[in-house]
Design brief:
alpha/beta, 5-stranded mixed beta sheet, 5 strands, single chain, 45% helix, 192 residues, 17% strand
Length: 192
C-alpha cells in the first residue's frame, strides 16, 4: 500500500577484468548504487565469498547504511553464495536479493549508468593527479568520496562539520580540490 515505507534498496554490478591490476592486485570492482550514491569496491575476483566483504565495505563507507534489498543482474556471480555471504557478513537474515534479467531496461539502465559514472570519475581522478595506471583503486576511492561530498551525502549522514573537515583535507594525489556548486558554464562566464 501507499502508506508502507519503501525498503532501503541498493543495486550492484561488476566491472572487470581491469587491466592493469591495481597496486593491491585488484582486477574487478563491485559498483554499488543507492539512490544516486555510487561506491566502487575493488576486489581481486568475483568469487561469491568476496561479495559479502564488498557489501560490508559499501555499507560502512556509506555511513552505516542499513540495506534491506539488493538488486542485481542475473549474472552467475550473484547466484550461489552471494546472498548467504552478504547475510553472514551483515548479520541480517532478512536481506533480500532481487535478480533482474538482461532485458530489464529500468534496472539495467540505472546500474549501467552507475558503472559508467564510477569509471569516468576514476579516470578523471587519475588524470587530474597524474597517477600511474595501477593506482585506479586509490583514484576510485577518492572519486567516490568526492561524489559523496558534492551531492550532500556526507552532510546528510554525518553532519556539516564532518563534511567541512573532509573538504579541507581532501586532495587527489596531493592536488587541492575546490568544491563548486555552480555549473561549468556559469563559472566560465564568471571568470571571462
Amino acid at each position: 500500500t501507499a502508506s508502507e515505507e519503501k525498503p532501503n534498496t541498493c543495486g550492484v554490478d561488476a566491472k572487470g577484468i581491469i587491466s592493469p591490476a591495481s597496486f593491491n592486485g585488484d582486477r574487478y570492482v563491485h559498483v554499488w548504487n543507492h539512490d544516486g550514491l555510487i561506491i566502487g569496491v575493488p576486489v581481486r575476483s568475483l568469487h561469491s565469498k568476496l561479495s559479502g566483504k564488498s557489501f560490508e565495505t559499501f555499507c560502512t563507507r556509506a555511513g552505516g547504511l542499513c540495506i534491506e534489498v539488493i538488486n542485481a543482474g542475473g549474472d552467475k556471480w550473484y547466484m550461489g553464495d552471494f546472498l548467504p555471504e552478504c547475510k553472514r557478513i551483515s548479520g541480517r537474515d532478512d536481506l533480500v536479493l532481487n535478480t533482474h534479467g538482461p532485458y530489464d531496461p529500468e534496472a539495467n539502465g540505472r546500474q549501467e549508468r552507475a558503472v559508467m559514472t564510477w569509471t569516468q570519475d576514476c579516470v578523471a581522478a587519475m588524470h587530474l593527479g597524474g597517477a600511474p595506471p595501477g593506482a585506479w583503486s586509490q583514484a576510485a576511492e577518492w572519486a567516490d568520496d568526492c561524489r559523496m561530498l558534492m551531492y550532500g551525502w556526507v552532510e546528510s549522514r554525518l553532519g556539516a562539520e564532518v563534511a567541512a573537515r573532509w573538504r579541507k583535507m581532501w586532495r587527489p594525489f596531493g592536488w587541492k580540490l575546490n568544491f563548486v556548486k555552480d555549473a561549468p558554464i556559469k563559472l566560465a562566464q564568471k571568470y571571462r
